[in-house]
Amino acid sequence: MTEAQAKPNGPMPSAQMERKLAKAVERAQQAFMEKNLRFTQLRQDVFAEIAATHASIGAYDILARLAEKGTRLAPISVYRAIDALLEAGVIHRLESKNAFFACRRIEHRTGRRPIFLACENCNGVQEVDSDGIFETIDRLSAAASFQPRVKFVEVSGLCEACRPGKD
Amino acid sequence: MTEAQAKPNGPMPSAQMERKLAKAVERAQQAFMEKNLRFTQLRQDVFAEIAATHASIGAYDILARLAEKGTRLAPISVYRAIDALLEAGVIHRLESKNAFFACRRIEHRTGRRPIFLACENCNGVQEVDSDGIFETIDRLSAAASFQPRVKFVEVSGLCEACRPGKD
DNA sequence: TCGGAAACGTTACTTTATACCACCGGGCCG
DNA sequence: CGGCCCGGTGGTATAAAGTAACGTTTCCGA
């Protein structure tokens, strides 16, 4: 599965899309600056590709899309950019799919954590507020004398647009 | 990382270990029978290898250990056995590590779902009751018009035995 | 006992991810 | 000013995880 993926949203004027993308890139740049990380050309290119998708996308899909645009890279280069983007918090990793998506919720970087709802059909990802789930996890961990470091809460299923009986 | 992994528990008399393993295999067999699935030799071998670990283990590690014992298999064979074991509910998959571990809580097969606490040092996994987390996920999904199919909650960190300052 | 489904074997391959080493460019220290 | 360190990049190779396709065997029920 290297190509072809249903769009999570309906059609949108390309000009508007581009403006949105530019804004997202700008916000990413902001995030990098705030963390004293460098928003290099490579990182910007990779981020733009992820953000343009509006869904989760695998590292090798990013690679392929950049290649189509003339930027031929080794996998390792993409992964390095991804690592930096993850560190800056501008993308998230979807563990259950080995894929990545652009974070659209600023507040994640200021304390609140979301859970991920990933559509199996269109690959779109919603980030919704966790409503105490992470606090519960902390409590359960403590009760088990377990020291948590990274917590994953992911749901795989069908988004509203992809539900059967809604053509 | 194909070899060498710290033991999650202290030393235990090998005879006792073997008895425990035999019991686990027996319970697995039970689970297969109840679901009208076949507990074949291959599945039993793979299950025994996973259960003997008392921790999470990757498919290729299982492969290597079976090979050491003279059972040389293709990866696909191991994966097929794993699929059957997952279906029977006698093992779980740890999404964040691409690894598997034996389920030690019968009650999971009767409705209750656990969350997983996975130690980064010894690879041991604790399954603790979710205390309403999955119900919260259902509620949040519904609020987002999302139809959940597979949910997972995993925590990566350090178990009590592996915490710093406890040699 | 025979026919179909489920399990298994074999080969090859895809997808995901990392190790290793060389190089380059910019900032900083002497 | 020169040398050096360091983060980022490029390239090659390879590890690790997972699957497709297809043929053969085994099991079980009609």
TrEMBL record, chains A, B:
Keywords: DNA-binding, Iron, Metal-binding, Repressor, Transcription, Transcription regulation, Zinc. Its cofactor is Zn(2+); Mn(2+); Fe(2+). One of its GO terms (molecular function) is DNA-binding transcription factor activity. The keyword Transcription applies. Fe cation binds at H108. GO terms for biological process: negative regulation of DNA-templated transcription; regulation of secondary metabolite biosynthetic process. It comes from the Bacteria. Pfam families: FUR. The keyword Acyltransferase does not apply. Belongs to the Fur family. This is Zinc uptake regulation protein ZUR.
